[in-house]
Amino acid sequence: MNWLTRIVFSALALFAADAALAQTAQEIVAATDRVRNPDQPFRSVLTLTEYVGGKERDHDVLAVYSKVDPTSGQFRNLVQYLEPARDAGKRVLLDGHSLWFFDPDSKVSVRISPQQRLIGQAAVGDILTVNLSIDYTASMVGVEAIDDAARKSRQCWHLELKAANDLATYSRVEYWVEQGSFYPVKGKFYSDSGRLLKIVYFRNFSQRLGSIRPVEQIIIDAVDTSLATTAAFGESAFRDVPEGWFQRDYLPRLQIK
Amino acid sequence: MRAWGWPALLLAAALGWAVARADEPPGENRDLDLIPKAAQTPQAAAPEAPAPAGTTRKLYLENAFTQSWTRDGLLVPLPPPRPSAWQERLLLDVRDEWRVGSNVGLTYSGRLNLRAEDGLDFPSHQNVTNDLREAYASWEPFERTFVDAGRINLKSGVALGFNPTDFFKTRAVVEPLSVDPVVLREDRLGTLMARVQRIWAGGSFTAAYAPEVASISPIYNDSNLHSFDPMFDRTNAQDRFLLKGSVDLGSSLSPELLAYHDNGRTRWGLNLTESVGQSVVAYAEWSGGRRSSLMDEALSFGRASGTLPAGAPSVLPSDSRQHFRNELAAGASYTPSETKITFNLEYHFNEAAFSGRDWNNWFLAGTGTRRGSPVAGQLWYIRGYAADQQEPVGRNSIFLRADWVDAFVPKLELTGFVDTDVVDGSARLQVTADYYLSDHWTIGGLVLAELGARRSDFGSLAQGGSVLAKVARYF
After folding, report:
1. For position B168, what pLDDT does the model report?
2. Which of A34, A49, B141, B409 is most buried, judging by how many CB atoms fall within 10 Å of its CB?
3. What's the distance, Cα to Cα, between the start and end of chain A in Å?
4. Topology (CATH level 3) of domain B55-474
């Protein structure tokens, strides 16, 4: 690298730093939330595929209703299992502090914690729609070029997110967001003890729910790296959801239609 | 260049080096090697279209073989017949819901059993039994206001091991393949009732009335079950009323209040849950009301159903007066963040059940009696009644349950629980393994052991334990 290149690089770095200052870390995360999630209630079909030792092992298909709580700004989610056959009809409700699981076999709604595994490698908190800017406080680490899931280099803001309330599933998150597009590229999720638990790549940016959004996530289990899950959004449509649906007693009544 | 220009340029050059180094984080891109090769190609984006109709149908065929072992030398001999040593069962389990128009639905849930067992004649009508768990119609006359009528499994309660507020649990469990309380909630008959439910953004309210449509009947055992009989005598032998409501207080606490009335007595109930961080959910379930002791209720039921002579005196000292008595289950679930195990630890209190003194009297009265004697018969009837009512016999117990997904190897789920009587330290222990061969096939088994001294709650039971092997096909 000759001295002229370094000067140009330095100028670009200063420009990038200046741009970052103009856009606070929290604003970047909020803008990325808007890329990931629409601002209207919607329903989607989510296909989760598990991989063990590099081989596809299992898959689950879920129908998901999501709607923002106007009080908190956070999403509430209603989930119904469509596949596999042995799990068909099971339902999950996430509403702020409350996460309820309904099993039609027992006909009882049981309150569960976000860490509880209901779907393969992914904790419930991993696959439901959330606005990270609500539950985390972001700070800027720097500007980096990293490869996305397709091994294409992306110039990213490297952000650090710390849990801002007890609704946050993870204690700390490292988050890479592409400059300019605000596309999420990668996330690393840590436990209270600081242990890396999961690595998530966002990919397959396509038209979905009125905008270009990441349609698929790859969730790598960082504790046992032979395990991975892909979560792919399929059929999606805007659909209003009545407030009363977000009551645990509505779970047995939920009909995907 | 001005005097300050060179230092600024040097600073910028230094920054350039730093940025150039930071620009190529050597470790980050290594994470890409962790993506499975099979997952490297993105799935094709699906077209935007309405989501498919969700199915609530569940249909599976299961074959289960159970081998049990019994204890000899019981302090209180069990009246005949002896518990069966083995049972072979093939069952077809169906649960389905249909929409009839935009605001009417039908629900059916049932299990058809083909069974053979030690001591059961073959062929006989008892080789075929059908459990009609639910059959009811739902109507939504106004948005989120529901009217249901038919046989309905109305369940309440937030605990796993013991549910004081699950008022319709009594006499409803039929021939379970597992004694896990979670499974017992699945294998039970609903109650014929009319139910109205209103759900709104701030909570919900439910009112149910279950009419008396049959006479009281003796406690069933596996040798006198009906083949195709809804057995309303188990669920609708008296008028029953339930009111319950939950309120969204805007906090994580989720209270539910209940009032239940039958047979001239009213019981009150409360369910509370609270999230504690990301890994813990604490909960408590309480009910209270005036009632007799479990022992006295059992004897009254035995006389009323004709199992015990009408004038048969109690062989145990008992207090037939009604008092306000409490039932409580309090505990928490815990899922460590780096595991796939969920633990539930609960304390159970049943004030109407046996105290230490009651246990002493039970063993004192029964020790040395002959098998088949009226005294032994009455003593065991009390315990059979408690099981039929889904109530613990001991007053204080500790319940620990664990559910481990992907235990040791992927697709293997282990579930185990231990229910310990605090007074004598005896315990019921069960471990269940399910291995998901595919989306449609599951194989599994369980081991059950009743542990304790001969003079203890679980150690005095005739059945010492059992093993079960099963295979299930889901459709």
Report:
1. 97
2. A49
3. 61
4. Porin (2.40.160)
